[in-house]
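Example record

The entry below shows one chain as it appears in the dataset: sequence first, then structure tokens.
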Amino acid sequence: MALLSPFLVLVLVPVAAVIGIVFALVQWLIVSRVSVRASAANGTPVSNNGYGEYLLEEEGTDDANLVLKCAEIQSAISEGAQSFLATEYQYLAIFMAIFSVFIFVFLGSVNGFSTKSVPCKDGTGLCAPPVANALFSTIAFILGALTSTLSGYLGMTIATYANARTTLEARKGVGRAFIVAFRSGSVMGFLLAANGLLVLFLAIVLFKIYYGDDWVGLYESIAGYGLGGSSVALFGRVGGGIYTKAADVGADLVGKVERNIPEDDPRNPAVIADNVGDNVGDIAGMGADLFGSFAESSCAALVISSISSFGADRDFVAMSFPLLISSAGIVVCLLTTLFATDFFEIKNVKEIEPSLKRQLLISTILMTIAIAVVVYIALPKTFTINVVGHQPKVVRNWGLFFCVGSGLWAGLIIGYTTEYFTSNAYQPVQDVADSCRTGAATNIIFGLALGYKSVIIPVIAIAIAIFLSFSLAAMYGIAVAALGMLSTLATGLAIDAYGPISDNAGGIAEMAGMPHKIRERTDALDAAGNTTAAIGKGFAIGSAALVSLALFGAFVSRAGIAVVDVIQPKEFVGLIVGAMLPYWFSAMTMKSVGKAALAMVEEVRRQFNTIPGLMEGTVKPDYKKCVQISTDASLREMIPPGALVMLTPLIVGTLFGPSTLAGLLAGALVSGVQIAISASNTGGAWDNAKKYIEAGASDHARSLGPKGSDAHKAAVIGDTVGDPLKDTSGPSLNILIKLMAVESLVFAPFFATHGGILFKYFNI
């Protein structure tokens, strides 16, 4: 028996979540102290920044008029982001209501909406009727969707709260600005990880009041939590990605290339929309995305554990192993954060990126120790995992240490590999920058080659983790390996959110007309942030691969599929169609960005051509018009790709049956991971190649510049092409493969009972 008692589990998990929430609030409080109420030079109060506080000039720095401008710009960015999310969430509320009905009707119809208890799957007595599972799955779906929505909103709120504060702190030095940006990112990371864990735990405790000892039914209904989280993440990622890239592409093509004005120049009509997009795409979208990964990996592990000896023995402690891993991760990430904010001080620009990389390494080492402790106190020495169609797998507890650890260290490898291929401190990006000497075409060629090559090491790392985990603990091993990769979620999100916050800080410094030295500091923060954003996307994609495979295992178990034989025609058809879906999805999202960017380019050109004094800086552009274009386009264009992902499993499972659907999921997983990694890294490399030329920090970089040179213009074009790859299509693909898998898991009883209508009709 495990050393932990069920009572201690009931205490430790929520306590860890509460600790994470309290720590996030403390970080928020520290950030809020950057500013206090003040007056501008003329004696009028500085404009309220939207959060009940006022930004003020610190002693010995620039005049208060600059602070006033910072506050006004922050207010405009905050207002635009809030407006977009409010409108998007109205659409999502309609979707949640409709899809909730789908879940209840499909699952309730498995046994004709009968309210009579049915025999338990383990043969121990009577368990909940299908209509009860339908109801609780629907409730779990709504809880997951609401938590995902809250995660995105909280992340966006703290980002818009912190961007101008980071700018103001940059006047005191790059170290002070770094601390503000990183603390703000930590707020998002800990709130998301802790809220996700707490809501999931409370849902399990409350659902158990009805289910009693029916752990199989309980955890199968809890799978709806992951479906809700990923559904919102899909629309948040796609909608936010289209928004930000429409604005970014429009601002770059007209502002940088045609008008030869700096990035974030206040004369550019699309500049506010561009900064808003950083928050709704890279913050709100990424937050919802990684929350979905956490929810799905937890649900997959819980579903599989319920049909193992854990479930048969009613071993609550062992079944709570996934929750205990996540709890330990919050505590580990808290300790890790102190290394960046308290133990080591950033004194110059060169220390920024190493400090962020150190966060990854420290959290991984500490988490490895924590995994060993959790395995020792929470698991029996041996147990069995049921495998459909095969003999149960006998597992030793130390085997799960290697399963979780393999996912954890695979995540670190993916992070460092992503950093190598996307940071301009290394040869691959410098080669891409050098290729700009001969124009945009060679820049595109080199960037694509870099992206394809960057797939190799992450895929090998994922493959090793899968092989080791499956060998030791079958599909349960893969599920906890995914949890291992996500166990340091709070730290990963902190360094990811740091990027857009720094990017916004630089934009505010430019628009407010701050001295060049301030912009140099914010540019240094932003350059490191581009790399951390790419690392965050790498984590998201790598975890999606493991999560999808774990969900796939849970699906075949729940659907009663003993073998997925890709040589058979039903499975092979699904396999090849599934491999096509990421291409179809990417085409839809890329075209959506293109259409939205076209409208943005036309509007920016119109304003430059028709507003007298705009280029001279004597009048302000119409920022709100560009914000409205991005908002309308993103909300309109996110629906078709979202419908493709949500409807495909329902159509395939209903018409062709669970076997074909299993092939479809395998095909989407295999091709989706490759395309997502390649697209994200290609776009990240193009972006940092441009910044490498702009910074001019080395003789080689200076030979390619300065801004406005032919090489720089070629780099801008490459960055513009890469924007939708790294911020829309690439990151959204990991949600595609996860979402289809968890949706298939939730609807598995319906597909097993009523699926394959066409094959049944034609007796195939």
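Notes for this example: The longest strand covers residues 382-385. The radius of gyration is 25 Å.
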